[in-house]
Amino acid sequence: MLFTKTSPIQIVCPSCLGRLKPKNDVLSCSECQTCYKTMGNVPIMLVEKFINSQNEKTSNDFQLTDKTFMQELYNTISIQLNSSVVAPIAQFINYGYVANDSTQYSQPFFNNQVFNKKSIKLLGEAIGAIDLNGKRIIDVGCGRGGALNTIHKYYKPQISVGLDISYENVKYCGRTHKDRLFFLVGDAENLPFLDNSFDVIINMESSLNYPDLEKFYTEAYRILNTGGLFIYTDSVPTSEIMYRESFLKNLGFRIMRNTDATSNILLSLEESSNRSFLADKLRNNSEQRLYLNEDFLALPGGEKYRLLKEGVLLYKIYHLRK
């Protein structure tokens, strides 16, 4: 379901958190007068800073921080997936998870899947024993909505919202996931919600390419209710782990769970060479294809896979309590 005037969660101006007034296809902020367009009931909640950040770079060698490039990449991937025979079930693009002799956290119902088996297993490992019933949930960087859709099969959240930088992803979500799920376009560094709006934040394999990671962490803390949980997974440069964890603690988060799942992710990647079909779909765009092969898909033989294999990157699963 796409956002409408009757959506059960209030969206506000991401620039100043002011109240929004709808008029025709525009949402206008009553405080700063910034206007946000809507496309087919989808609010496009991107601030001017997002547009102006398209050429931002960082000294971090592991990050690609050109937001416009990432937005276009995800739009292209979504369009290509929509044109394939797997479109109805192509709801995940994450690395997936394969069990080994390490401790497993997922509930049994996450282990008995037919489609998207490894991707859903990763979601289950991220959630662990957390009870999501009755919770207000947001998936920041929701992609094609597979995580929220799966959660609704096994839990009964009070509210579920998906936010993604890609309009094509959000449009797919609105067509595919129509029951009790709400989606909008937005920027993880400028979240269009009031303080204490959610009980659970999910962010999976999305934050590595955020230009201002500290801003995202600060925004996540702001919109999370006191006592709420931030479920966070991603590839993290080993050299930055201590600093990031310290920053999160200084914000006020308590680290309740800190799991290194790198070995499980590598096992999944080694079984997922068929993920290369996404790169094949982009044969006419050499820049996007190169990024998919070397980084995004983490295919064996690529740079991202090498960094995980050598321990330069670790795949971490965190539970952070506010």
Brief overview:
By secondary structure, this protein is an alpha/beta fold. It has helices at residues 48-52, 67-82, 117-127, 146-154, 167-176, 213-223, 241-251, 262-270, 277-281, 286-296, 303-309; strands at 20-23, 26-29, 35-39, 42-45, 136-140, 159-164, 181-186, 198-204, 224-237, 254-260, 313-321.
Overview of the molecule:
By secondary structure, the chain is α/β, with parallel strands linked by helices. The chain has a single domain, classed as Vaccinia Virus protein VP39 (Rossmann fold), CATH 3.40.50.150. Helices cover 33% and strands 22% of the residues. It contains eleven helices and eleven strands. It has an eleven-stranded mixed sheet with strand order 1-2-3-4-7-6-5-8-9-11-10, sandwiched between helices. β2 and β3 form a beta hairpin. α2 runs parallel beside α5 and α6 packs parallel to α7. It is globular and about 55 Å long. The two termini are 29 Å apart. The relative contact order is 0.15.
